[in-house]
Structures are given as structure tokens and as C-alpha cells.
């Protein structure tokens, strides 16, 4: 097929429940489209200008300051834009905060991404797993009585929202004051207000809830930046990114530009993270209600007290019905609902940019599908 034969229009858009890269606000896509041939004042597109160009530096600084205002990030924290995805952070966190310290890093293992983070951390030093939900296929989270973190740990690491299993911490896990709390917030970053002061470090790749693939946001308490051994690989060394204001090497300029627009959309159109949280609660509760009232036709994967606002995971009575559900949903323009193979069933990722109408359409389809097949 030629390009012209496949040119799609905005009306061809589906409700996209992809886990990531994922749905973006339509207004952001429009702005990007409008500025694609020529960024105002640049005489070229953002894709074509230097990362040292004043126009780009302003875009980067604006993205940072919008994030700072949304999350209330103080000057005690550095905000860095890195490449390598969340996966590089599995290594970077441990290389900076564990390697050579003689300490032990403690992990709460509540899903697939935490497991991968532990594998990488083990290459850098001594790692302890304080809680492991593998026995119940990661359907639950620890409470304070399930573990105790030593006062001298290098850090306590957890994943605030396990994207594959659909389990999300309602608030920060118990952590001694002397221990930096580290969070992989990749799939729930900006879904609600976050008390950054409680953290040593929070990171999030953008392509779930905050922008396109290519950029990872790292928010790090400044006093932790100097701990790292000078001999760790330069790109992993947070100090290089902090001191050079995310321009130690070429940053992912386009991804930062779009992330900045998403942050402005959250601030100006949504009205901030508290409003976003309200909307996310309404959206997710409407789907969980359908699951709970389906007389067992839909079975939620996550225990009810740790259900995710972002990734709604559930199973159907059979593999056959699951396949049928995905196919029929597709013909109703409800896309990318197949669950991850480790959980099976369905995963509806309903990130910030998923409009209420999309969730409503999915809910109506679920109710109808259950009544026809239950
Ligand atoms: C997607 C995801 C990752 C991996 O992100 P990459 O950018 O592909 O490395 C890690 N953690 C969580 C919670 C995720 O959702």
C-alpha cells in the first residue's frame, strides 16, 4: 500500500487501551501536528533543531517547571530527563545508591517489573527481598506488618503500580526515615498527587502515563546525588545529568517536548493532579463495579484493596471467551485489551488521557458481553 492510501484521519482513532506506549491527549497530538512543519520562532520543526538551541532549552525548562508545579517538587530535588527507559533505571538506581556502599538494598517484590529491577540490582551489590508476592501470582501488596526494613538499608525500593498485574499502592509503603525510599512510578506517574518529600528517588518512563517513549523522568533528592562511586558508567551517573541540566549528552528532545505538553494539559485543562485523581477514580471504579456485579463472569486479578487506577486486570471463564471478547471489542473500536501472558485475560489500561467516554464504551461492552455469554 502506498502512504496516501493508508493516510488515516482523527476520526479513525479507536479507544486505545494499550499498556504502553499508550493513549495521549488529543489536544496534545493536535498541537504537535500543528507545530510539526515549523515550531514557532524556530524556522524548523522541533525534531530538527539543536538540543543547545535556546528554543529547545526553554521547552526543557518549561517541562521541568510544569512538573515541579504539578507535583510540588522543592529545590531539594533534582529533576532529570534521561533515556534508556525505566529499564536503565533498574541499573542506575543500584549503581548510584548501592554499588560500593557495603550496604544492602531492600526490595518489595509485587510484580513483573520489580522482579526485573531486582535482577539488575543484584549485579551491583547485596540485595534483600523483604516481601515477595510470587506465591499468589502478584495479586496483593504488603502492609506494614508484612515486613520490616532495616534502618541501615541502602534504600527501600518498590513499584507503585505494577502495570502487568494491575496492583497499585494506595500510599507510600512504611520506610524508616534513615532509608531513601525509591519508586518505579512508570505506570502511575501524574495519575494523582505524590508526596515527593517522602522519597529519595522516583522515576518514570513517559510512555505509559506521561508522554511518548524515549524519555524517563528522574526526581532525586539532591543530597543522594554525590553518593555514587565516580567509576560507574558515565551515562548511569546521576551527577552528570543533574550538573548538566539533562544536557550531558543529547537528550530525547521530541519526547521531552511532548511530555511538557502533557504536563501543561494536566495543569491547564484538567486543573491539576487532585482533579486527575478524581477522574481516574471514577473511571476505574466504574469498571471494577461491573466486574464485581458480574456474578463471577469477570474475575479481577488484583485483590480489591490494591486495585490499580491505571491498569484494570481481569479474567473471563475461559480462554475461548477471552479471545472472543478481544475480537468483539476490537469491532467496537475498543483496542489493545489483551492481558499480558503472565496474568492472562484482559487488561484495560485507562491512563490519564483515556477519555471517560472510552471507559464508558468499554463498560457498556463488558455488561453486554457478559449478558450474552454468561
Ligand atoms: C513499562 C514499565 C517498565 C519498563 O519500561 P521501559 O521504558 O520499557 O524500560 C518498568 N516499570 C514499569 C512499572 C513499567 O510499567
UniProtKB/TrEMBL annotation:
From the Swiss-Prot or TrEMBL record, give the protein name. Phosphoserine aminotransferase
PANTHER family annotated for this entry?
A: PHOSPHOSERINE AMINOTRANSFERASE
Cite the cofactor comment: Binds 1 pyridoxal phosphate per subunit.
Q: Does the keyword Ribonucleoprotein apply?
A: no
Does the record's keyword annotation contain Cytoplasm? yes
Q: Which residues bind pyridoxal 5'-phosphate?
A: 86-87, 113, 163, 184, 207, 249-250
**Which family does the record assign?**
Belongs to the class-V pyridoxal-phosphate-dependent aminotransferase family. SerC subfamily.
Q: What is its EC number?
A: 2.6.1.52
What pathway does this protein act in? Amino-acid biosynthesis; L-serine biosynthesis; L-serine from 3-phospho-D-glycerate: step 2/3; Cofactor biosynthesis; pyridoxine 5'-phosphate biosynthesis; pyridoxine 5'-phosphate from D-erythrose 4-phosphate: step 3/5
Under InterPro entries, the record lists:
Aminotrans_V_dom, Aminotrans_V_PyrdxlP_BS, Pser_aminoTfrase, PyrdxlP-dep_Trfase, PyrdxlP-dep_Trfase_major, PyrdxlP-dep_Trfase_small
Give its localization. Cytoplasm
Q: What is its main location?
A: cytoplasm
Alphabetical list of HAMAP family matching this protein: SerC_aminotrans_5
Amino acid at each position: 500500500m502506498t502512504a496516501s492510501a493508508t493516510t488515516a484521519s482523527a476520526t479513525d482513532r479507536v479507544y486505545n487501551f494499550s499498556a504502553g506506549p499508550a493513549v495521549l491527549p488529543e489536544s496534545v497530538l493536535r498541537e504537535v501536528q500543528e507545530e510539526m512543519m515549523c515550531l514557532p520562532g524556530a524556522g524548523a520543526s522541533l525534531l530538527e533543531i539543536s538540543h543547545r538551541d535556546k528554543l529547545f532549552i526553554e521547552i526543557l525548562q518549561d517541562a521541568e517547571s510544569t512538573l515541579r508545579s504539578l507535583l510540588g517538587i522543592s529545590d531539594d530535588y533534582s529533576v532529570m530527563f534521561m533515556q534508556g527507559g525505566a529499564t536503565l533505571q533498574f541499573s542506575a538506581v543500584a549503581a548510584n545508591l548501592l554499588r560500593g556502599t557495603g550496604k544492602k538494598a531492600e526490595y518489595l517484590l509485587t510484580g513483573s517489573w520489580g522482579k526485573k529491577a531486582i535482577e539488575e540490582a543484584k549485579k551491583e551489590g547485596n540485595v534483600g527481598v523483604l516481601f515477595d508476592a510470587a506465591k499468589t501470582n502478584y495479586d496483593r501488596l504488603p502492609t506494614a506488618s508484612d515486613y520490616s526494613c532495616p534502618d541501615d538499608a541502602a534504600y527501600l525500593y518498590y513499584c507503585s503500580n505494577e502495570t502487568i498485574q494491575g496492583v497499585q499502592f494506595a500510599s507510600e509503603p512504611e520506610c524508616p526515615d534513615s532509608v531513601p525510599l525509591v519508586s518505579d512510578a512508570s505506570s502511575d506517574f501524574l495519575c494523582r498527587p505524590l508526596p515527593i518529600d517522602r522519597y529519595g528517588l522516583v522515576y518514570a518512563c513517559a510512555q505509559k502515563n506521561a508522554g511518548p517513549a524515549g524519555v524517563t523522568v528522574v526526581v532525586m533528592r539532591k543530597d543522594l546525588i554525590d553518593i555514587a562511586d565516580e567509576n560507574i558508567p558515565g551515562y548511569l551517573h546521576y551527577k552528570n545529568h543533574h550538573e548538566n541540566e539533562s544536557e550531558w549528552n543529547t537528550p530525547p528532545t521530541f519526547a521531552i517536548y511532548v511530555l511538557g505538553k502533557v504536563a501543561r494539559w494536566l495543569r491547564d485543562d484538567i486543573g491539576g493532579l487532585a482533579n486527575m485523581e478524581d477522574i481516574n477514580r471514577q473511571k476505574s471504579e466504574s469498571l471494577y463495579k461491573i466486574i464485581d456485579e458480574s456474578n463471577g463472569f469477570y474475575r479481577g486479578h488484583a485483590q480489591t484493596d490494591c486495585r490499580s487506577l491505571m491498569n484494570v486486570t481481569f479474567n473471563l471463564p475461559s480462554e475461548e471467551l477471552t479471545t472472543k471478547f478481544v475480537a468483539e471489542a476490537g469491532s467496537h473500536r475498543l483496542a489493545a485489551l489483551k492481558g499480558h501472558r503472565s496474568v492472562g485475560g484482559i487488561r484495560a489500561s485507562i491512563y490519564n488521557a483515556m477519555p471517560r467516554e472510552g471507559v464508558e464504551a468499554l463498560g457498556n461492552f463488558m455488561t453486554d458481553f457478559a449478558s450474552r455469554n454468561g
